[in-house]
Amino acid sequence: MLFGLLVVAAGLAAAMRWEVTSVHQRHDGEYGWAYAEVGVQYDPAHPYTRYEITYRYGSGDLTGEGEKAGYIAFHYNIPDSNGIESVTLVKNPITDNFVEQDIASAGWPYI
Description:
Blueprint: H1 2-15, E1 19-28, E2 32-42, E3 51-62, H2 64-68, E4 72-80, E5 83-92, E6 97-107
Antiparallel strand pairs: 1-2, 2-3, 4-5, 5-6
């Protein structure tokens, strides 16, 4: 009986071994950029069904060319259950028009 309990406990401990990784993407435009990243903890035996997103991060801003042109950047993130989308909109303040949209996305499962 004791041996059986030890085997079950060892099997559960082995099944609970998790790996960690991150998935990221960066998009560089002429006037702006966007970056998205997610952290993932997953079971190596079942990476697409047993996982947890541990963090979501997104950022974006103007490039040097965008700053020189006097443009303005608006950045926002769209998180979802499996990842994040990072969006940077570049606007010309003189004409009040958007001149560029930069999008980066990261998520899991990463296939």
